[in-house]
Give the backbone structure.
Amino acid sequence: MSYTKRKDGRKFDEMRKIKAEVGVIKNANGSAKFQIGDTIAIAAVYGPRNLYPKFLQNPEEGKLRCNYNMLSFSVDERIRPGPSRRSKEIGLVTERALSPTVNLKEFPNAVVDVFVEIIQADAGTRCAGICAAAMALADAGIPMKDLVSAVSVGKVGDKLVVDLDKSEEDYEEGATDMPVAILPRSDEISLLQLDGEMEAKEIIKALEMAKKACLELNKIQKEAIRKKYKGEGK
Ligand code: CDP
């Protein structure tokens, strides 16, 4: 059966409503909140600071370290607190999605810690976390060549869609989820995962949809950063 209408009335290439804010945690060197629909991520950046234990230090450049966590109350069914296989995987892909943009050459033996906390989840949390983390890194003043924008695209039933919510991920007749992160200025893809099945030509089309959505996201992220710093340095 054809997937004719999205539950929330969105067009197939339309993202959910987005809100972005920078500087939400005073104690952190940089922080941000990113909301897309009912998915909310908070990111906090600490560092550069000395990396311990010492054997982990790299005298050539600093290290980016990302931690992803979904809070127990972020979904209806309580999530067991503490690290899981899933949270470790997402921490790692977050790190890889952000690494190409940060330049830590000036900070030998140091670490920049990024903590992503998902306070409410309705699918697309790794992408929301990456968007928040990129903004938090910029807020912390970490040298970066670009922001990173991320969104999940995929296929629900027979339709290619942007920004799947949980009901779409769980669509009875099958859904494919493809989270994508992009450095908008260079068009570099720093995250591409695929959970499900799509034909090659569908993947290409879905990637185009992701790129277009990421450009929109990028504008919102930049606007949030500008909002905090507007008027400073005058
Ligand atoms: O969140 P993301 O799409 O990046 O990753 P996922 O592993 O595909 O999870 C999809 C969604 O399933 C999450 O966003 C949550 O809404 C939900 N989920 C859950 O309810 N309980 C979990 N332990 C993990 C995920």
Q: What stands out?
A: The pocket of cytidine-5'-diphosphate is lined by residues 75, 79, 86, 121-126, 152, 166, 169, 177, 179 (CB under 6 Å). The helical segments are 85-98, 125-139, 166-169, 200-229. The beta strands are 18-22, 30-36, 39-50, 63-70, 110-120, 149-156, 159-162, 175-183, 188-192. The chain has one domain: 18-229.
